[in-house]
Amino acid sequence: WLRYRMEHFRFSNKQEKMMRLPEGFTVNTKPLQLSDELEALYQVYRSQLDFEVSPTLRDNLFSLCFISSEEEPVFDSRVIEIRDQGKLIAAGISGIINIYDPAYKKYSPGKQLILFKLKDALEQGITYFYPGYIVVGFPKFDYKLEPGEGICEIYDTVKGGWIPYSIAGIMNAEAPPMD
Description:
Elements: E1 2-5, H1 13-18, E2 25-31, H2 36-47, H3 57-63, E3 78-84, E4 87-93, E5 97-100, H4 109-124, E6 128-132, E7 152-156, E8 161-164, H5 165-174
Antiparallel strand pairs: 1-6, 1-7, 2-3, 3-4, 4-5, 7-8
């Protein structure tokens, strides 16, 4: 698992520029409520993946224990939406799930959602932000390092504590290959 130490985070000029949305785009943060619109976006996103994910957004969230069997969020979960002329094109649910319409990939919506989540976390005064998991040496999740490796910590399951991401990368590089 990965977390960010928010006390050390500052937006870079590049990140601030990335959060400037094109004309007609809007961003909104609100409490999570599952909807047909969110599910449709999840299905569009899921269709372009080259790895396996849950068949529905509800299943994905339920497997992570974010919603109960009654469809209500178990935690104080929020969703950040990015829209183009009112059309939902990207959504970030809590810190864990980011989905977007692949037609908008050139705008880097995954990175944008992480940055908007960090802005929201700063505004709420959150000490640690948890964007889910990352696999050292597996680039599909490297977008989660966008805030800067200096604020990233990874959970060491062997020692049972958080360590700087840079140390985790060194430890992984020195580990013998698995057969």
